[in-house]
Amino acid sequence: SNDELHRRIVAAKQTLGDRVVILGHFYQRDEVVQHADYIGDSFQLANAAKARTEAEAIVFCGVHFMAETADLLSGPEQAVILPNLAAGCSMADMADIDQVEEAWEALEALYGTEPDADGRVPVIPVTYMNSSAALKGFCGRHGGIVCTSSNAETVLRWAFERGQRVLFFPDQHLGRNTAKKLGVPLEHMPMWNPNRPLGGNEATDLEQAEVILWHGFCSVHKRFTVDQIDRARAQHPGVRVIVHPECPMAVVDAADEAGSTDYIQKAIAAAPDGTTFAIGTEINMVQRLAAQYPQHTIFCLDDVICPCSTMYRIHPGYLAWVLEGLVAGEVLNRITVSDDVAVPARLSLERMLAAKP
Ligand code: 13P
Ligand code: SF4
After folding, report:
1. 143-167, pLDDT tens digit by residue?
2. What CATH code is assigned to 221-300?
3. Is 25 annotated as contributing to ligand binding?
4. Domain 2-89+311-337 is classified in which CATH homologous superfamily?
5. CA of 43 relative to ligand 1 center, distance in Å
6. Is 247 annotated to bind ligand?
7. I want to staple 241 with a disulfide (CB 3.0 to 4.6 A). Which of 131, 255, 274, 277 is the partner?
8. What does this protein do (predicted)?
9. 285 lines ligand 2 (CB under 6 A)
10. Interface ipTM
């Protein structure tokens, strides 16, 4: 039962003490989040993994790419554990390293490799955190960088200082929404289609491209619609609509604000009592915020319950299992990134951590 699992997790944690640290993403279910030593968005959790040098194990309650990132940034002796190895991310799976390498070759053939008069190279690759370590490594090897939803603007500026254009993957929506905010016109953001020669793009589109978007998307956030926002505004005059930047552009444009999970949480925490919020992000987080801030009215834009199915795979039963493993001296479900990938991947993450707004 849930009570039983709760009891087992608390007992194992108590036995382990400082030997373990549990990190939890905002999208995790309550029965998991309540055991986390640190809860945050993906940027904050990356920093937390980097800072926790004393614990021998980091149990990451989130998805696979986050655990990989924690392994890249944590100490070499620390084991990063993903309680359920099936907790992946469908968006991260939408960009595979071979397809990206192929796109890169085609772009090099088109743009060449020589910097312009200002020293800017033809293309800088930027990968969203929600991608495999192999793609972060690719960025590291090609002068590129990682971004999260909380620093995408800063990172794109960083990239435009060093490159004439950007190849952004895997999330087309975060790429488009961020580039638009920086003033890049839509007709200068062609989308790369890896299934067609030269990406299926007209050469002229690529000729004037400033940001080349990958075709990936988040299956949770693409569900939000402008209709839902219109309905929320009609039913709740004065409602504040905040959505995640993984939502489609029309939805971000129709909302009052867009920001990372941490942005959403902080906006709610700082609002005057009695504010009504319609939120466009994962349901577990929205429901938790609604319970945490009873002084406000908080609801999800989508009334069909839409959890992130892979985040949800971290069941408390798995958490109990890996913690009890540690108590018994066994490291279960360890996530490790091999050195050939880790060295360049770390480089692209360190560039992100050092990028100044
Ligand atoms: P953030 O936590 O960075 O806002 O990202 C949301 C998300 O979809 C993680 O998968
Ligand atoms: Fe991936 Fe979307 Fe789930 Fe985030 S919410 S882990 S992007 S599927």
Report:
1. 999 999 999 999 999 999 999 999 9
2. 3.40.50.10800
3. yes
4. NadA-like (3.40.50.10800)
5. 8
6. no
7. 255
8. Catalyzes the condensation of iminoaspartate with dihydroxyacetone phosphate to form quinolinate.
9. no
10. 0.97
